[in-house]
Every structure is written in structure tokens, then in C-alpha cells.
């Protein structure tokens, strides 16, 4: 509690006085007031609602807000609260829905933001250097590999635990400005990963809140490229959830916001995200133009000049995005052609998605036998994945397959698919 009070710029009375108060709470003679209540919550890493402090639950309203933090200190406090509440499984947060206006507000606030801010006076006792920043970056890179290989549900809790217990104290520590900027950018990247993993687990409101906090941290880290990539991630999620206009706007904001420092790969990704959104609206012409711009940009890239975190976006990844687009505009044959070029062999979850798009495209092209064969390949590929998004792709395929009716090919598929964990998760009446 003393450490929590110090972080807020206040102090507690003597030990004897505090112990008397704690004894009074434990014996149910009183409850923590507006001063002590937040300190107890922070010390225990729990929300007011979890502790039964109903008179303080207005603080949980702040926790559930989807606003763009106005200052670095607000961002530190907000992201720390998110990590702790997520770590303790606070259901109103974990099960929350995303806010549609928050996407537009975030992109606008970031586009018109002033110069990056810096905390007025870090008060913590932890001294932070570039070695600490490198440690966070390396650890987050390890978690990113686990996410890519096993899905967001595999290590999401471990990522949040690391951020809450090891990274949060660094943000409120003591550091020079250059170290601080590097720290904010690195923590933004780590928080973006937590957002992606939450999105992959279909905790969409939580994921949106992580993306928002990551965007603010990237702003104060003076990392425009990373901020653009965060907006691109938000666009990806918005398309998945059916908010196509907002998704296209986010992709365009990303492109506009980093035009002065953009790299070809980043521009290709932003055009591809816009194409994904446009495809869902049925605007085939605009979608094709966006894909053409993405292809043109990617052809001019120089890997040595690209941020390492965008290295995954290559020809195979762009082919996967194009396959999604052509499937969504009902150009099944073109979707098949692109999906067949989308297998990287090194990114398990991405390959699963591309394989399922290929299966879906074959189904739409009138070839259910080939669709079933490819879908079984996807099930084999995804056997180790813990991803609610993967389940949603299978559920959509299952719905389409139901329209075909019973054929020898579908009966054989159902029989073999029944052995796979991801397919079992799509069963409507499963417990």
C-alpha cells in the first residue's frame, strides 16, 4: 500500500495507524474509504468489484472506458489497471464488447496529436536503462513466437502476467528521456501483442482497450510507424467484427499518419487492410485498386529498412489477404489462385487461415470434394492451435457445408473432422 501511495504522490501515516485500519476492515468494523480503497485494490491487484467495495465501483467504470489517454501518466495508469484486471479475470472487462465510436476517436486523436509527451517527474524507485528495454523486447519476442505457433489462447495469461508484474514498474521508474522513449515504444509493441492475443481469443472489448493504450504509448515513444501498425491491427479487428466503414477509415488513417516515415511494407499492409474492409462492403473495384497499390508497394521494399516486427508481411501474407478479399467479393476462382500462394510454411496460424480460405473458395466454386480435402489439411495444421478465431473460420465453413447436403465426400469429411479439437468446438450443442 505504501508503494501504491507513493506512485500516486501521497503517503500513508505510521505503521501502527495503518495496521489499526486494516484490523478494523478485517473485523468488518469498517471498510476502506475513497483514499485507502484504491490503494488496497492496487496492492492486491484486484478491482473494487472483486473485493466487494461497492461504494468504490465507480473506479471500475474508468477501467471499462475506451477513451484515448490524454497524458502519458494516464496511459501508464490505465494500462496497468487493464493488465491487473485481466490477470485476475475481471469478467466485466474480459467479456466486454468493443466500442464503435472508439475506433474513430482514436484515429482522429492520434492524427491530430501534438508532439510526443513525456512524464513530468517519474516517481518510482526503479532505475531503468536500455538493458531493461532490451529485456522487455526479447521477452515479448518469445511470446510472439508462441502466439504465432500455438494461438492467442495458449500464452495470453502469461503475457499479461509478465506485463503486469515485470513491465509496469518500469513505466513509473526513473529514466532519461532517450531511454523513456525506447521504453514506451517497446511496451507499446508488447501491449499490441496482448491486444492481438486477446483478439485471437475473441475477447474483443479487451483487445480494443489494449490497442488504444498501445497507440498512446507509441505516440509518446515517438514511434509513428508502430502507431500506424496498431491502427492497422484495429482495422483488422473492425473488419472481423463487421464494422467495415470504420475498418477502412482506420487503414486510411494509418497510411496518412505515417506518410512521412512510411516503409513500403507498412504501406502494403495498410492498403491490404483497406482492401479487406472494402471487399466486405462489396465494392469490388475499390478493393482491387487497394490490392494493386499493396502489391506495388511490396515490390519496392528493402528488407534492411523495414522494422523487424513487420518482416512477416511478405508475398505469402499479401496473397492470403487477397484470397480473403476475392472470396468476400464472390470471385471464387481468383480466391483459390491467391490462397494457393499464401502458404508460408513458417507461420502456423496464418497458414491455417489461408488453408481455410482455400477450402471455402473451393466450396463456393462448386467443388465440395476438394473443399473437404483442403479443410482436413487445415484441421491437421491447426491441431496445436488454441484460437477462437480459428474456430470461427471453421464454424463459417461448417455453415456453408451444411447447404451442400449429405454426399459421400461430406460424410467422409464429417467422420474424420469429428476427431479434431477445433472442429469439436464448432458443434452448436457442445457443453
DSSP summary, beta strand count: 0
Summarize the biggest pleated sheet: none
Number of helices: 22
In whole angstroms, the N-to-C terminal distance is 43 Å
The radius of gyration is 24 Å
Determine the fraction of residues in helical runs and give it as a percent range. 55-70%
String of helices and strands = HHHHHHHHHHHHHHHHHHHHHH
Judging from the principal axes of the Cα atoms, what is the shape?
A: globular
Beta-strand residue percentage = under 5%
- pLDDT averaged over residues: 90
Class from helix and strand fractions: mainly alpha
Low-confidence stretches: none
Can you characterise this structure?
The protein has helices spanning 2-7, 15-26, 36-44, 58-63, 72-87, 91-94, 100-111, 130-150, 152-171, 177-200, 204-220, 224-240, 244-257, 264-281, 284-299, 315-328, 332-339, 348-364, 368-381, 388-402, 408-417, 421-424. Among the domains are: 1-63, no CATH class; 71-221, no CATH class. It is built from 22 helices and no strands. The model has no long low-confidence stretch (mean pLDDT 90). It is globular and about 80 Å long. By secondary structure, the protein is mainly alpha-helical.
